[in-house]
Specification:
The complex is a heterodimer of chains A (about 400) and B (about 260).
Chain A: E1 10-11, E2 14-15, H1 24-38, H2 41-55, E3 61-63, H3 65-71, E4 74-79, H4 89-102, E5 107-112, H5 116-128, E6 131-137, H6 138-143, H7 145-153, E7 157-161, H8 168-181, E8 186-189, H9 199-207, H10 209-222, E9 229-233, H11 238-244, E10 254-262, H12 273-276, E11 278-282, E12 285-289, H13 314-321, E13 325-331, H14 332-346, H15 352-359, E14 371-376, H16 384-391
Parallel strand pairs in A: 4-14, 5-6, 5-8, 6-7, 9-10, 9-14, 10-13
Antiparallel strand pairs in A: 1-2, 3-4, 11-12
Helix pairs in contact in A: 2-4, 4-5, 4-9, 5-7, 9-11, 10-11, 14-15
Chain B: H1 6-13, E1 18-24, H2 33-42, E2 47-51, H3 62-74, H4 78-85, E3 96-99, H5 102-108, H6 110-120, E4 124-126, H7 132-145, E5 149-150, E6 153-154, H8 160-169, E7 174-177, H9 194-201, E8 209-212, H10 218-227, E9 230-233, H11 235-240, H12 247-258
Parallel strand pairs in B: 1-2, 1-9, 2-3, 3-4, 4-5, 6-7, 7-8, 8-9
The chains are: A alpha/beta (about 400), B alpha/beta (about 260).
The complex binds pyridoxal-5'-phosphate (PLP).
Chain lengths: ~400, ~260
């Protein structure tokens, strides 16, 4: 159990809960109750039923034949893009809304970058009849207008975060400030495996359904419960955490995370945290982050708003440090090429985030007998404008 | 901890109406830090909190966020701040506290930071995102080695049991956050949770308390002082610095709106 969170909320030296005292009652309540609630019979029943009938799980594990032919090795795609709302994010929001209800909360807040997590949160709030407030960087509100409209139609209030660079990091700051101002009836649904303990572990538990299904589905496909490797893109790291989880202790399985290099890791316009960052505390957990020598957080950049984050979940910092997982990076250009390749070989338009995982195929050695699973974390509908402006269709 | 610490001396000398002021180092101009401290003391401040600006101050409202952004643009850093404070004890006698977030302190190096604090004459630290358990496990020994009080916060939601725990772990004073909020400005005393102030006063704590967050003018200051040894003004002061007057005029002008001349 080398890769599980310990009692104090750490993965090795990473994690913990560096919270201001104002957040203590809520975080302590979550720390004390989350395991009990999510392991309870009623919770499991509701969670499994909603994932099945509302989200549409299990998501298929699809052998991408033409892609496999091209690379001379079997490549399976875990189709999180086919989930309701279009990405893996909904696995977590279903889990957290049920938890919030169990804790008697009446109001939900969330942060969002590209809007995928915001939409997934607004969706489950509509489903449960809960009040929903989503913080989104003012710049992202402009860049991701369709998702903003979706959230509003779903009944959520979208509040533009006007501090800092007005992107995901700032939206997260604003959500935390909201929680400080509303300590009693509000639950904060964090969208990735970041934030104070227990969020990284809790979100990992909700996303772990991805690797649980991969095991069963691989058994059907190849008569073996594990692949040669699993590849996933990493922003905060929730889809990767879910895709890796049930393989963590099986060291035969190679785990590869792919970060967003933006315009390149040798430029200042990048979001490759594990490649370029060092240890620090952001959003209440100790992990790797992109910062100046003076400890100020550096603004990241990526073509995909969902990977545009200067930190990374503490689990990934630990997996990287212990060499259990390997972290590569892909540039905007490599990502666009990979997205077009999948679109034209398989008829699947991936999210820009997920295309980072696809881009790794060109960066690793694939043997003919290998079985590679790529977590296709989301679909590309939200990215059409970016794709069209680059490909000019 | 030695009673030489200026914070303890202050509370021995004065049990009421302690007038404490927060400002952000390097704001409005990079080199305003030292004159601001000197002018505050001259105008009657009993204690000063010097804010170390951080890019992502989650416990702060818009005014202090804005001042932090400006200070960072001006080139403020912990290293720069220690340079500015090098000779501060030649001209300033009141207790000085540094307030800031844990990440820049970590990057500076915790021990080097504490050592430097002692060298320049800092008496205490307020690090809102350094919670009690992490402080006790990783930082307390160093803070004590260099004679620094760690000032911990309590809020209206903090349970009696935890307040006792915080009291036991405190040595200077307890920072009583006035209401459920980030730092900011409240103009009316009726915005405060009087029942919470009274609850805390009945706990017979060993440490004195100062009330902060939202204190902005004579009404809110006087009201807070009814329930604690004094109060801390932050955002309202920082906002007052943003005027087209000399630094001296801005500071003396603001102080007059809160306390009467001694
Ligand atoms: C489709 C998709 N994949 C991945 C991510 C990145 O998040 P994480 O690293 O937590 O999986 C996002 C975030 O918005 C997303 O929308």
């Amino acid at each position: 159990m080398k890769y599980q969170v310990d009692k104090k909320g750490y993965y090795g030296e990473f994690g913990g809960a560096f919270i201001p005292e104002m957040m203590h009652p809520n975080i302590e309540e979550l720390q004390q109750k989350y395991m009990e609630v999510i392991n309870s019979y009623n919770f499991r029943q509701d969670f499994i039923q909603l994932l099945k009938h509302y989200v549409g799980r299990p998501s298929p594990l699809y052998l991408a034949k033409r892609l496999s032919e091209k690379y001379g090795s079997d490549i399976y795609l875990k189709r999180e893009d086919l989930n309701h709302t279009g990405s893996h994010k909904v696995n977590n929001t279903i889990g957290q809304i049920l938890l919030a209800k169990a804790l008697g909360k009446k109001r939900i807040i969330a942060e969002t970058g590209a809007g995928q997590h915001g939409v997934a949160t607004a969706t489950v709030c509509a489903l449960m009849g809960m009040k929903c407030v989503v913080y989104m960087g003012a710049l992202d509100v402009e860049r991701q207008a369709p998702n903003v409209k979706k959230m509003r139609m779903l009944g959520a209030e979208v509040i533009p975060a006007v501090s800092g660079n007005q992107t995901l990091k700032d939206a997260t700051n604003e959500a935390m400030r909201d929680w400080i101002r509303n300590p009693v009836d509000t639950h904060y649904i964090i969208g990735s495996v970041v934030g104070p303990h227990p969020y990284p572990d809790m979100v990992t538990q909700f996303q772990a359904v991805i690797s649980e299904e991969i095991k069963m589905q691989l058994d059907e496909h190849i008569g073996r419960e594990y692949p040669t490797r699993v590849i996933a893109c990493v922003g905060g790291g929730s889809n990767a955490a879910g895709a890796f989880y049930h393989f963590l202790e099986n060291e035969e399985v190679e785990l590869i995370g792919v970060e967003a290099a933006g315009k390149g890791v040798d430029t200042s316009e990048t979001a490759a945290t594990l490649t370029l960052g060092n240890v620090g505390v952001l959003h209440s957990s100790r992990s790797m982050l992109m910062q100046t020598d003076d400890g100020q957080i550096v603004e990241p950049y990526s073509i995909s708003a969902g990977l545009d984050y200067p930190g990374i979940g503490p689990l990934h910092a630990h997996l990287c440090k212990t060499h259990r997982a390997k972290y590569l990076w892909a540039t905007d250009q490599e990502v666009l090429d990979a997205a077009l390749e999948l679109t034209q070989l398989e008829g699947i338009i991936p999210a820009l985030e997920s295309a980072h995982a696809l881009a790794a195929l060109k960066k690793i050695e694939l043997k003919p007998t290998d079985v590679t699973v790529i977590n296709l974390s989301g679909r590309g509908d939200k990215d059409m404008e970016t794709y069209l402006s680059h490909f000019g269709y | 901890m030695s009673t030489q610490n200026r914070i303890n001396q202050l509370f021995e000398k004065k049990q009421n109406n302690i007038f404490s002021v927060y400002f952000t180092a390097g704001y409005p101009d990079l080199n305003d830090t030292v004159p601001t401290i000197q002018l505050l003391e001259q105008n009657g401040a009993d204690l000063i909190e010097i804010g170390m600006p951080f890019s992502d101050p989650v416990a702060d409202g818009p005014v202090i966020q804005q001042s932090s952004t400006v200070a960072l643009k001006n080139g403020m850093s912990i290293k720069k701040l220690f340079e500015q404070l090098e000779n501060i004890r030649e001209s300033v006698n009141i207790p000085l506290i540094l307030m800031g977030y844990v990440n820049p302190v970590m990057q500076y190096g915790v021990e080097a930071f504490c050592q430097k604090c002692q060298e320049v004459g800092i008496d205490g630290l307020i690090i809102p995102d350094l919670p009690l358990n992490v402080y006790q496990e990783e930082y307390q020994t160093l803070f004590e080695k260099y004679g620094l009080h760690n000032i911990l916060l309590i809020t209206p939601q903090t349970s009696d049991e935890r307040i006792q725990e915080i009291d036991n772990a405190s040595s200077g004073f307890i920072y009583m956050v006035s209401s459920s909020s980030t730092t900011g400005i409240k103009n009316k005393a009726s915005d405060f949770h009087v029942d919470y102030f009274e609850r805390v006063n009945q706990l017979s704590l060993k440490n004195p308390r100062l009330i902060g967050f939202g204190i902005s003018n004579r009404e809110t200051f006087d009201n807070a002082c009814k329930y604690a040894a004094g109060a801390i003004i932050g955002s309202a002061f920082v906002k007052a610095l943003d005027q087209k007057l000399t630094l001296e005029e801005r500071i003396s002008g603001f102080v007059k709106t809160v306390v009467s001349p001694a």
